[in-house]
Amino acid sequence: MKENFNVHPQFSQLAKMLMQNLRHFTENGEYVTKGDRNVIKKFEIDGKIFNVKKFKTPNAIQSLVYQYLRKSKAKRSFEYASKLRDFEIKTPFPVAYYEAFSSGLKESFYISQHVDYDFDFRELIHNPKFPNRNEILRQFTKFTFQLHENGINFLDHSPGNTLIVKRGEDQYDFYLIDLNRMRFETMDFEKRMRNFRRLWLSKTMIKTMAKEYAVLSHKSFKEIHTNMLKHSRAFQKKVNSKKLRRRK
């Protein structure tokens, strides 16, 4: 079996202990999420807390693709996190990734430093009376605008993939997670507006965010609002139609 274990130089002294936890991933650590596709566990090593994401083993064809044609999700997560930090976009610090190959990709892990966050973007959707909601939405819009200005197309820009830390009075930091689907490209107006579609925004949220994006981009509120609303509603309609078909 061929193995590839890449550790960030800042954590090279912990490489052996990190690898031990990967070897005993099933028994060790504390579950953060236990999904059908991916599993995330939390480990404490040398007084530091790390999140370890184990990706689902791909099928036979996909596993060969990941060995010979395409980077694994673990490797992409590590590399994209490093790129984001180069752009001064916050994401949990990329610590390491691990890949094991045997006639294809058999196992892959991504390790990042744990972030103690206060809430995620979903809270703003589910609770219209969330404290300081409009200000958080404005700052989140500015954060998304910075992504776009830096040519970062976060394809999974969805409610559960932004962690929010309250830094001070009316000041918030935003951390992107689940990074393996991302493109670094010029973001034209259409791509920028489409990038909001997965956030499952209400009409009130769209109005607040469109106002802020209009100011930042020097475009009219009407143009931003119309396009943001169009893409959001089209995506929501598509998802709801799929759910309805499954029920039938």
Describe the structure.
- This protein is an alpha+beta fold.
- It folds into 2 domains: 112 residues, Phosphorylase Kinase, domain 1 (2-Layer Sandwich), CATH 3.30.200; 129 residues, Transferase(Phosphotransferase), domain 1, CATH 1.10.510.
- It has 8 helices and 11 strands.
- The strands form 3 sheets. A 6-stranded antiparallel β-sheet has the order 1-5-6-4-3-2, sandwiched between helices. A 3-stranded antiparallel β-sheet has the order 7-9-10. A two-stranded antiparallel sheet has the order 8-11.
- Helix 5 crosses helix 7.
Essential attributes:
single chain, 248 residues, alpha+beta, Phosphorylase Kinase, domain 1, Transferase(Phosphotransferase), domain 1, 2 domains, 6-stranded antiparallel sheet, 3-stranded antiparallel sheet, 41% helix
What spatial form do the alpha-carbon principal axes imply? globular
* CATH-derived architecture of the largest domain: Orthogonal Bundle
State mean pLDDT (0 to 100 scale): 95
Radius of gyration: 20 Å
Write the H/E string, N to C.
EHEEEHHEEEHHEEEEHHH
Question: Structural class, please?
Answer: alpha+beta
> Which strands sit side by side, in order, in the main sheet?
1-5-6-4-3-2
* Largest sheet data: 6 strands, antiparallel
The count of DSSP E runs of length 2 or more, i.e. the number of strands, is 11
Q: Determine the N-to-C terminus distance.
A: 45 Å
Q: Share of helix among residues?
A: 40-55%
Protein name: Lipopolysaccharide kinase
Keywords: Kinase, Transferase
Organism: Aequorivita echinoideorum
GO molecular function: kinase activity
